[in-house]
Prior knowledge:
This protein is mainly beta and about 290 residues long.
Amino acid sequence: MSTRYPKIAIRLLLLIISVGLSQVVVSNSYAQGGHGPVFTLATPTLGQGELSFDVMAMSTRQGNSAWMLRQNWHYGLTEDIQLNVSVPTPLQRIANPPQGRLGTMMGSYGDLEVSGLFRLFKTYPGVGQRFESTLLLSGSVPTEDKRGGLHVGPSLHGGLVTGYASRTFYGWAGGGFQYYTEQHNDRLGDIAYVTGVIGYRPPLFQHDYPKPDWRIFVESVTEWVGNSTRNGAEQANTGGTKSLLGPSVLGLYGKWGLSGGMLFPVYSSFQSGQDSESYRLNFVLSYWF
Length: 289
């Protein structure tokens, strides 16, 4: 596929950002829940009846670069239950995309995912402080027949995260597991993972609208990918372990949010000859209704 598509994705994202930020006219109070780090599990959920929409430009590289847009809808059924739909729009595919969840709230490469966030526990140790645990359950269907030369089937996923948030500091740790079903005697390897993130909100940005609000994060993801199955036979050395680490930011202004980040590999046990994942890149523009 032509290499012009990454340029188109970047230009489209910049256009959306410029139009959106130039049209911010909102009231003085609104919710901006349900958003946090870019790649890792986190506990925030939207308030009851609140709705938000994300448009996301994302890229990963395994030999060649893949580019994709995603459209994500989030709805707060109650203050402790959030429903989500994530729809991918591939711009530039690669023959052997990396096996892993490119973001915990968006599923694997090319998957359309429906999920629910369920806050199981919360307590408030002090003013402006919150300690809570959230369960993420999701199901996905692929948008292509084959991935990496294998037929790809639907999958089920579950994750659990616990963390602390205040007006200044944030920290979440969690993990999950994704199971792929068999399709035409092929099956992608399962994915187990753990994530961790720490965040900081500088005092300069600890103010309400109309002043901007920015947070910075350091995110980490470690994934254990199982061997895939082809024609009923397990393919040795198709799985492995990888760890990625990198920075991200989240900015809020009015009913708009802008976040982005990049992860880089710090460890990989995938066999020699396999293209390991070189990076994960993500930019997100959000709007709260």
